Amino acid sequence: MTRKVPVFIDGEFKQSATEQWIDVTNPATQEVIAQAPVTTLAEMQEAVASAKKAFLTWKETPVSERARVMLRYQALLKEHHDEIAEILAGETGKTFDDAKGDVWRGIEVVEHAANIPSLLMGETVENVARGIDSYSYTQPLGVCAGITPFNFPAMIPLWMFPLAIACGNTFILKPSEQDPLTPTRLAELFVEAGAPKGVLQVIHGGKEQVDFLLDEPAVRAISFVGSVPVGQYIYRRGTENMKRVQAFAGAKNHCVIMPDANKSQVISNLVGASVGAAGQRCMAISVAVFVGAAREWIPEIAAELAKVKPGGWNDKGAAFGPLISPQAKQRVEQFISQGEKEGAELLVDGRNCEVEGFPDGNWVGPTMFGKVTTDMEIYKNEIFGPVLCTTEVNSLEEAIALVNANPYGNGTSIFTASGAAARKYQHEVEVGQVGINIPIPVPLPFFSFTGWKGSFFGDLHAYGKQGVRFYSETKTITARWFESDIADASGPNMTIHLQ
């Protein structure tokens, strides 16, 4: 019998009363491994009511107690790390190593949330005027919600609810309907860590459930990660409803290769960063910009890329797994065909990829284009597959201009031996996250994930100090006390005399 994914509402995992279910399939086999419910309106309303009620007591819980919940939670996540990764690999198709990385990056954010007492500290100035002091407190918002994508079903939920809850909020999570088993296990372990009833709710479904969260007056803030069109929709509808919104969207990340770079490092890093996770990550390198004589390395990179093989999650020789769905595979292959029609040079063709033992998998092999120009569709669109576009320029200035003209600004990197070139690039490039001789510059959680331009809609980013600010409000107090009101100290002598 196919497993029915439960909802988690008011502290209870239970089967939804819905009559609509969404198949969850293994991308390597098309086997239906579970069914996710389309959560009913009554169930969503119950989740909101529970979250509102829990907030009244959770916000008063001492911050040190909230931190201890996170400490217990990160310990449980570490204890069950490989188990979670195996669940994740089964529903996403990721290789086991990739799945473990997904889980671990989420654990790092929970560790960050365990530091919440110092992160919530306010500011104080004595004598802002004669006899008057000012100080600030950081207080929670209320009910918050998160809408997460299929490609990181452990890391991205863990970007959201642990920090929001540590700040004193309650949280409603709507994970991707394509891989709901991992978030369900995360919720189970959160309960085991001692999270009080109602602090976290988990609902499932599609657009109808998202719209409910966007329109529900009790939801104060929305966190989202996903595609550009959906990100724009969520930002517009959420802010129209007067909510605080952070919406992380798509990308077209460039890696600039200078001729003085370490060639072997460039080749190994570029191959992994472009096709790892089957290219299904918003920080993947999808455009390599070769400066000057560095263009001579393109054939060697293509040769190395062609050696990379996809495979099943437990195949230790596999570099990446299948795409998430047949529709995703079809979309990527259409882009490859489009690139050929547009005149790009197809150096490595990943279409018609076959993996032994998995004839029905959503396989696309590593793909690489040369001679790509900025007017081509394969350059303008986020392909979200194992496809690397390459282009050539004559100078660092041209490379910077090309990157800055792109509408996205999630991540970029430069490979060079020149400190001056690196300094110029990091200063002038209009991208939120920059790597120097590092291909995928995702910051650790004590910084924030800071995409720019069309890659992010909102004002405050995920995790780090900005994440705390997103999930909290600042209250500033200005106080004056009159010395004339000090009570007369005369009265019983309460002095303790030491013997």
UniProtKB/TrEMBL annotation:
CDD domains: ALDH_F6_MMSDH
Species in which this protein is naturally found: Pseudidiomarina salinarum
Top-rank taxon, per record: Bacteria
Enzyme class: oxidoreductase
Gene3D superfamilies named in the record: Aldehyde Dehydrogenase, Chain A, domain 1, Aldehyde Dehydrogenase, Chain A, domain 2
Keyword Metal-binding: no
Entry keywords, A to Z: NAD, Oxidoreductase
Family: Belongs to the aldehyde dehydrogenase family.
Lineage: Bacteria, Pseudomonadati, Pseudomonadota, Gammaproteobacteria, Alteromonadales
Domain Aldehyde dehydrogenase: 15-477
GO biological process, one term: thymine catabolic process
Protein EC: 1.2.1.27
GO molecular function terms noted in the UniProt entry: methylmalonate-semialdehyde dehydrogenase (acylating, NAD) activity
Listed name of the protein: methylmalonate-semialdehyde dehydrogenase (CoA acylating)
InterPro entries: Ald_DH/histidinol_DH (IPR016161), Ald_DH_C (IPR016163), Ald_DH_CS_CYS (IPR016160), Ald_DH_N (IPR016162), Aldehyde_DH_dom (IPR015590), MeMal-semiAld_DH (IPR010061)
